């Protein structure tokens, strides 16, 4: 009991490439099967307008990854941010374009949220359209009453769900929709793009989620809403180290997404055996986490891009169904 | 020339109540004419979930104003912010509700932008739906290809356009769409809700607009877009007192919307005879502005509420047209 330092720490680092493998195979097969309607492969267009070298890197990596699975990828550089909206609208209207993604931030403020809604819902592979978010928050799986057109999920939160499935945090002995029952998850990030939707998704699947940002800590649970199947949110109080420590004390999973090179999650708050996942492009855990975490996923990008391409295939399926109907 | 202090300053303060009078009369008549389909008056529902006494005041004033024109107004208080989304969705679905407004801020962050999109487009009297903004930015006036359903404009920017019309800044000798040709306008605020759309609206009507925020100064002009009738934006540089001073030197109109009691626009930058309008709920100009401004509009709320109610009538007209068609 007392000699815990001497006990072997059999923690394992799990790479996103390993997690994404099954999806890569699945997607590659599906793209192959699409040859009859997309002989040259589906076309994904990425818009780069921020001149950010990191975004350039990400773009060339998206190109490589998507092409390796049989997609075509076209990077469109827009010199003036102000022209991006028109460029997106042009791609919305272009039948040759199957999917559209934008390398954010562009303006780095609320105008980016405006742009996200400019991308046609039918080509929004990132799943940023308001309809997709609203459906996600309310557990609505289809876009139409006939349940023919599947709604898609924002690709980063979806990727983290898939990672949690891979890591067996989702318990398949439990019924679907309740497979996180009994699990406690800490999420350090409450952005509208990832942190809040992720908290809702996990709560909708039965977890208790502690959602942490610089301002406060909130508890997401499934709740007992009368009218909608929807998560419930409770304020636990302003952010403090103590409160974070409390939340971590019996957390099964800690997920971080703080976009700062300076931020490090305090390893000393992590109990032995916690599953730790970082979705920030910065390294939010330092290496000491390996002495505590049972499973540690240092980066998630490769799973995210798989989900994005999976979304794209779903959008193409939807488009074909709409065409067949008309 | 040198004794300018001694010259009479015939500046006039114009109250929003005076500007809104013609709209109040027009709206009241239209509501009366709607008696056949809305015998008890159209129903506007306001949602209050922030417990803010200022919002309470604004709500009771909305109630009084709208009831005086023949509308019914119902304030719905939502105790927990987290329940607001469901309350809005309920109102979206309720045929008895004609219009919905929300007293923002609720969360005070990007989640408010999510909520704005939850309000059904057909009942969004404030005109905050993405479709309305996108139509506004692109000078699109209708929601349908048949040009039966009129798009609406966000109510605060619209109110300021109406104020500029009343003040004869819009020159009716010029053709519609070019009535601000030759005018220079400074706008201190570039929010997604008011400042940026307003700058675009005025640029679309031919003005040169200097859009100022804490970060930088941008110049909005109509531009010569190949594919869309749309404003053009140019960065003039980071914000500085000097740059602001330059922009004001030959400005015809200065419009402020800084939501802080501490902020005062420097009267010394205002040239004699400038038209000054403040749409912030705080007093952005101090009284010395009266020695400089030819026309000074210290508050705009009463025009805004008129535009909101006018939007509501338009939405009811649209709904009736859709009904007649089906």
From TrEMBL, chains A, B:
Sample GO molecular function, one term: methylenetetrahydrofolate dehydrogenase (NADP+) activity
Q: Which UniProt keywords apply?
A: Cytoplasm, NAD, Nucleus, One-carbon metabolism, Oxidoreductase, Purine biosynthesis
Q: GO terms for CC?
A: cytosol; nucleus
Q: What is its EC number?
A: 1.5.1.15
Q: Where is the Tetrahydrofolate dehydrogenase/cyclohydrolase NAD(P)-binding domain?
A: 154-214
Q: How does it assemble?
A: Homodimer.
Q: What PANTHER family does UniProt report for this protein, alphabetically?
A: C-1-TETRAHYDROFOLATE SYNTHASE, CYTOPLASMIC-RELATED, METHYLENETETRAHYDROFOLATE DEHYDROGENASE [NAD(+)]
Report the protein name in the record.
Answer: Methylenetetrahydrofolate dehydrogenase [NAD(+)]
What gene is it encoded by? Answer: TDEL0B02500
